[in-house]
Amino acid sequence: KLNFNGLYNRIGQRIFLVGGNGQFGDVYESPRNVLDFQTSVTVGKRSEFRLNIKDMLNAPTLFYYDQNNNKKWDNTAFQKTTIDPNKDYVLQRYRQGTSFSLTYSFRF
């Protein structure tokens, strides 16, 4: 009647955009942890309530230019209002947020 389900995933580093031979290096998405949870309860023979919580950790997503081509994040290149062309810098950083859903299903 009552079920619990948890899922942990580590999203590894992956390439997002391929850089050129010019000013910009490749853009990578840095690794992050994701934790999802689901619980369901059966009500009667044909119906069920289900609660889903996605991305409970809400870890930041980071996309960065790998200017020194070492395939890892080396902190920002911004130093005293100038950019060091041999250090990485952030293209975008944000949090995707945690989502919740509550579902009722009935089977005929």
Oligomeric organization of the protein chains? single chain
Helical coverage, percent range? under 10%
Sheet with the most strands, sense and barrel status? 4 strands, antiparallel
Radius of gyration equals: 21 Å
N-C termini distance: 18 Å
Count of individual helical segments: 0
Give the spatial strand order of the biggest sheet: 1-4-5-10
Instruction: Let me know the average pLDDT.
Output: 87
The helix-strand sequence is EEEEEEEEEE
The assigned structural class equals mainly beta
Shape: rod-shaped
Q: What is the tally of beta strands?
A: 10
Low-confidence stretches: none
Strand composition percent: over 45%
Structure description:
- It is a single chain.
- The chain is rod-shaped, with a radius of gyration of 21 Å.
- With 108 residues, the protein is mostly beta strands.
- It has a 4-stranded antiparallel sheet with strand order 1-4-5-10, with no helix packed on it.
- Helix content is 0%, strand content 59%.
- The relative contact order is 0.25.
- The chain has strands at 2-11, 14-17, 26-29, 32-43, 47-54, 60-66, 78-79, 82-83, 89-95, 99-106.
